[in-house]
Amino acid sequence: MDNLKLRSTHMTKKDKTSSGLPLDMASEETLGLQDLELMMHWCTTTYRAMARDRAAEALWQTVIPQLSLRFTPLRHGLLALSALQVAGSSTRPDRKWRYLVLAREHHSHAFAGVELDTTSDLTDSQCNAHFALCCALIVFSFAYCLVYDDIEETDEEQPDVLHQFLEVSEMTRWLVGAMLSNVERVASGELHALVRPDQTRPTMPDMSRLVILCLRQQNETEALRDPRHEKQIYTETIDHLGTSLEQLMNGGEPKDFAFCWCFRIPVRFSELVAAREPFALAILAHYAVVLHHLRDSWWMGEWGLRVFNKIVERLDREWHELLSWPADAMGVFLSA
């Protein structure tokens, strides 16, 4: 994951321009056969997992690839994700590694096209390209861990899932912030179907209010038990979790809101998770349910279950009662 770490505070628009990869490349590039192969794979296979409905599918299959022909970083983003999917589906180790390396190369070029400053000076086409690029990079960060971890490394220890999640969450926070800078323009333009709420999914029994109430009560208990307990940080995080769970229970498409949680929660909460604070882990275990509802997408897979299982390993059994709802939601049996 080192090549995916963000250094947003040190990267400026000037830095990216000097790298020779601005958002809109003036000169045309000739696609090689390997890139053509990856673009064909995108247009026949990879695009499907990006879309929530037929309208969005049409954009990811035709409109966005056409847009990428004029905006080089977006093209690299699509090729990176396509190469990553090929790597993940390959059974031969040499082929898996070859496409994984190719995915990394395209990702490094794609990342240089993310606007860190205001996007108000971009054209509508540039805004659309920028938005689609950020979407692809968020998906890439989740998928990369799954594909990389699937490659057997006998001389290396197994990666810490929670550490990986925090790295991916940090990148997601930053990319969502970049997307929000022009989401209104995208919503009123050609790519509006990517941000239009989907009301067609069936609703589920809404347990979210009871779940959030239990977490709030536990927050109060922890504050009384320990004067160092950071109650306000947890309150803000639980509130944002409640919004995500409510959208999920009401039939919302997780692709529309799952990653906003990473952007909205306090940075301090991530630090508490990194410190393996039990209550922070318990809250994160509930967010894992949202990720679990994306498991049918190849780039998400069992991320939610991996995070939840690692949290269960870390927490004492006294926390199991608080984890009963996410355990039931993911089909996990907790020993008494």
Keywords for this structure?
336 residues, mainly alpha, globular, Sterol_Uptake_Regulator, DNA-binding transcription activator activity, RNA polymerase II-specific
What does this structure look like?
The chain is an all-alpha fold. The chain folds into two domains: 2-194, no CATH class; 208-330, no CATH class. It is 62% helix and 0% strand. The chain has 16 helices and no strands. The chain has helices spanning 13-18, 33-44, 54-68, 72-89, 93-111, 124-150, 161-180, 183-187, 208-225, 231-249, 254-257, 260-264, 267-274, 278-292, 303-314, 324-330. Helix 2 (33-44) runs antiparallel to helix 3, helix 2 crosses helix 4 and helix 6 (124-150) packs antiparallel against helix 7. The chain is globular, with a radius of gyration of 20 Å. The model is unreliable at 5-28 (pLDDT under 50). Residues 1-23 are annotated as: Disordered. One of its GO terms (molecular function) is DNA-binding transcription activator activity, RNA polymerase II-specific.
**Biggest sheet character:** none
Kindly estimate the percentage of residues that lie in beta strands according to DSSP. Answer: under 5%
- How large is the radius of gyration? 20 Å
Count of spatially separate domains: 2
Region (Disordered): 1-23
GO molecular function: DNA-binding transcription activator activity, RNA polymerase II-specific
